[in-house]
Amino acid sequence: MTIKRMQKKTRKPVIMEDYDGLLSGVISLIDEARRVSSRTINAIMTATYWEIGRRIVESEQAGKRRAGYGETLLKQLSADLTSRFGRGFAKSNLYQMRAFYFTYQDILQTPSGKSQPRKFQTPSGKSQPHNSQTPSAELSIQAVSEQFPLPWSAYVRLLSVRNEHARTFYEQEALRGGWSVRQLDRQINSQFYERTALSKNKAAMLTRGAKPKPQDAITPEEQIKDPYVLEFLNLKDEYSESDLEEALILHLEHFLLELGGDFTFVGRQKRLRIGDEWYRVDLIFFHRRLRCLVVIDLKRGKLTHADAGQMHMYLNYAREHWTHPDENPPVGLILCAMKNSALAKYALQGLPNKVLAAEYKTVLPDEKLIAQELEKTRKLLERKYD
User: Fold this and answer.
1) Do residues 271 and 278 lie in contact, with contact meaning Cβ atoms separated by under 8 Å?
2) Quick check: 333 and 354 in contact, CB under 8 A?
3) Quick one: 283 exposed, middle or buried, by C-beta within 10 A (0-12, 13-18, 19+)?
4) Helix (H) or strand (E) holding 216
5) How many helices (H) and strands (E) does the chain have?
6) Is 366 buried (19+), middle (13-18) or exposed (0-12) by CB count in 10 A?
7) How far apart are CA 47 and CA 2, in angstroms?
8) Secondary structure element (H or E) that encloses residue 217, with its range
9) What count of Cα atoms within 13 Å lies in the side-chain half-sphere of residue 348?
């Protein structure tokens, strides 16, 4: 009897017939409006970054006789733009914009004065034109934006594809199939272009490849809150998660230094490049008693095999590029600041011997102690940012 009464109380009142249809329609309308807004912002952002890349290249060419001009230019430009606009204009990002222009500079008018549409090379060898007109040499942001129908994050991913034909193929298929960035990334990682080129039934491969998987879906909220979009619009109030992460890293730095004199601070948010990909290590310390680097990476969420693999990649890079000959191999510390708990885990695999691993375990701070401090700090900071 009590259960029936509770159900009656929580039941929604009947406002009108087919109210669910009205609600569903309005939700769809808002979702589509958000998607359109995201596409519009992305198009303008992509065009802006292409134009920035063009101006950087032209400035470098003007000063090419001066040694180191390009490097100095990007460093100064990054500092000034970051000071004026905040996030999004690190030197590595300017490198991407310059590379983006180099890769897609063919949207400019040809020397003969005749415009030529961009063409896409399929695995079968047949080229297909892209239905857009090449704007004049004096390009407006709006004109350039019409040349780039995919979001900026998609072009960032495409820049890592070195084969020009493969890159153009992925761009075409992403556009034709309406791929999300996640789907594009999955197809590139699975070598979809190469598999299609080798297939006897290319049409069937293309049809199967166009089918999205559940993990490919991106919600309107994710599209709008894409880090690239937020950086471009300078919406600092939307960076609560990033601000929280930075605050956690800063607090952890102070916490480890206060544990004793063994930890020496080396660097924060240190960037490294492996292949065509840029990565960022949150904190690096040097442990004087162990005579080794301690590489620390903070994750927002549960610890995954991918996180462990990435940490071992960092350690291999640190061993090769940052470790001195008289030092021990580096050790990694992965921190997971989950919503309801925290986890700290040392990466000790791959050390030369078990004795060294045992010494590391004895001397390094207890993982539980670090996790407790991380959890306590996270709760305090979340209350501050809420």
Assistant:
1) yes
2) no
3) buried
4) none
5) 16, 7
6) exposed
7) 62
8) none
9) 16
Q: Which residue has the tokens 């375990």?
A: 361
Residue appearing with tokens 């490097």: 71
Please give the model's pTM, rounded to 2 decimal places.
0.54
> Which tokens sit at 195?
């598999």
Per-residue pLDDT of the chain in tens (386 residues, 90 and over written 9): 443 444 444 455 555 677 888 888 888 888 888 778 777 888 888 899 999 999 999 888 776 666 567 788 888 998 899 888 877 888 888 999 999 999 998 775 544 444 344 444 444 445 444 443 434 434 578 778 888 888 888 898 899 888 888 888 888 888 888 888 888 888 888 788 887 777 767 677 677 666 666 555 566 666 666 667 767 776 644 444 456 677 778 888 888 888 767 888 888 888 787 776 778 888 899 998 889 999 988 887 777 788 888 888 999 899 888 999 899 999 989 888 776 678 888 888 777 777 887 888 888 888 888 888 888 877 777 666 55
d(Cα 120, Cα 143) in Å, to the nearest integer? 20
Given the structure tokens 């297939």, which residue do they identify?
199
Residue in this structure with the two tokens 């990565």, named with its chain if needed: 279
Amino acid at 5: R
CA distances 240 to 58, 178, 224, 384, 385, Å, are 37, 30, 15, 10, 7
Q: Is 94 exposed, middle or buried (0-12, 13-18, 19+ CB in 10 A)?
A: buried
- Beta-carbon contacts of 310 under 8 Å, excluding residues fewer than 6 positions away, are 279, 297
DSSP 3: H
User: Tokens at residue 76, please?
Assistant: 């100064």
Token pair for 275: 């292949």
- What are the structural domains, with CATH classification, of the chain? 19-108+117-237 (no CATH), 239-385 (3.40.1350)
- Is 361:349 a contact under the CB 8 Å cutoff? no
Residue 232 token pair: 């471009």
Question: How far is residue 365 from each of residues 58, 77, 371, measured CA to CA in Å?
Answer: 52, 41, 11
What residues does 333 pair with on adjacent strands? 296, 346
